[in-house]
Design brief:
This protein is of the alpha/beta class. It is built from twelve helices and 15 strands. Helix 1 runs parallel beside helix 2 and helix 5 packs parallel to helix 6.
Length: 382
């Protein structure tokens, strides 16, 4: 198979979809890998490293997309990339389609077979390709929030860890999954007063145990959220429903009651956000202020720590890239149910139920995909 890795074009997105080690694995198995020139520079990976691994480095994104049978990226394509879609192309990347109906419709109309990292899911519910970026985004959320609380950034002037004789900052984490756990870990490490909220009593019990009582665990319901958020210096939104649009658990009315200069970091913004007043922002303009509260909603937070993020991500993604390359998408999803759950769009149909439900379109199950235009024979290709 011919695999293409273009340079990311989202604002200040420095990650890259494949590292030289991944190239080496694919080339050793008889595949061809095309890398756009300077695609890895933002992650500290020069073109020479890809050449030594056996890749072909091309000068233009257009050539990478036109020659490739599978495109491996990090972030969802933006509008300037839409014209490069073609029938039968496998697109393997983060997609977060629920809040982006235009991209979904373009994928459907183009015949692209779209595989989303974030919905590849094991039988036990684990999301192996979302986990590494969730760990990074969760840790960054507290780090970013701590900086924004400084007066020079418009914040309340609160030091999260406090000092002897002065109470520490109050951090509320809404959601006890990977993002929330990592946000809480950093906040506890800084010495903050941390409250974590979730609807799973089993999860709250587990977190109470592993943190040894160093944070407060509270059941997540509207009354408890309102009480906690009202007194918070920093709120971290960390709610995830795989593939679906995030619910607005923190309402605008709750935000209005927060102290002036408090900070919200909504890590769920990729899926529409779990804070009603949050909106997607960029690394160039990362914050907005609503009701006196600073909101941070950068949709590609881990791109700021690109080298760490790239290697953490590609450690997880390469196994499925190899599987698709070896057998073609159709046979690969028959061999791996987790990968099958990652297919969001196939032959013009939405094949991920949470995405279909969020967009109000028909859901077509992907259990046994029919042959269609551009389908790959059920055998290894090179």
């Amino acid at each position: 198979m011919i695999i293409g890795v273009p340079k990311e074009v989202k604002i200040r997105e420095y990650r890259v979809g494949m590292v030289p080690g991944g190239v080496h694995q694919l080339v050793a198995r008889g595949h061809k890998v095309l890398i756009e020139k300077d695609a890895g520079i933002g992650s500290g990976i020069p073109d020479d490293a890809y050449l030594r691994a056996g890749a072909e480095v091309l000068d233009s994104a257009d050539e990478v997309w036109s020659r490739a049978e599978m495109i491996v990226k990090v972030k969802e394509p933006i509008e300037e990339e839409y014209p490069r879609f073609k029938d039968g192309l496998v697109l393997y990347t983060y997609l977060h389609l629920a809040p982006v109906p235009k991209l979904t419709k373009v994928l459907m109309n183009s015949g692209v077979k779209a595989v989303a990292y974030e919905t590849i899911q094991l039988d036990d519910g684990f999301l192996p390709l979302l986990k590494p970026m969730s760990e990074i985004a969760g840790r960054m959320a507290t780090q970013v929030g701590a900086g924004l609380l400084e007066k020079e950034h418009g914040g309340r002037g609160v030091l999260l860890g406090g000092v002897p004789g002065v109470t520490p900052g109050r951090v509320v984490v809404v959601g006890g999954g990977v993002v929330g756990t990592n946000a809480a870990r950093i906040a506890v490490g800084l010495g903050a007063d941390v409250t974590l909220m979730d609807i799973s009593l089993r999860r709250l019990t587990y977190l109470d145990d592993i943190f040894g009582g160093k944070l407060k665990t509270i059941f997540s319901d509207p009354d408890n959220i309102r009480t906690a958020v009202k007194n918070a210096d920093l709120v971290v939104g960390a709610v995830l429903i795989p593939g679906a649009k995030a619910p607005h658990l923190v309402t605008e009315a709750m935000v209005k009651e927060m102290p002036e200069g408090a900070v919200i970091v909504d890590v769920a913004i990729d899926q529409g956000g779990c804070i009603e007043t949050a909106q997607a922002t960029t690394h160039d303009n990362p914050t907005i202020v609503k009701h006196g509260v600073i909101h941070y909603g950068v949709t590609n937070m881990p791109g700021a720590v690109a080298r760490t993020s790239t290697f953490a991500l590609t450690n997880a993604t390469i196994q499925y890239a190899v599987l698709i390359a070896d057998f073609g998408l159709e046979e690969a999803i028959k061999r791996d149910r987790a990968l099958a759950r990652g297919v969001n769009v196939y032959n013009g149909k939405v094949t991920c139920k949470p995405v279909a439900d969020s967009m109000g379109v028909e859901y077509t199950p992907m259990a046994d995909p029919p042959a269609g235009p551009g389908s790959v024979p059920n055998r290894r290709r090179s």
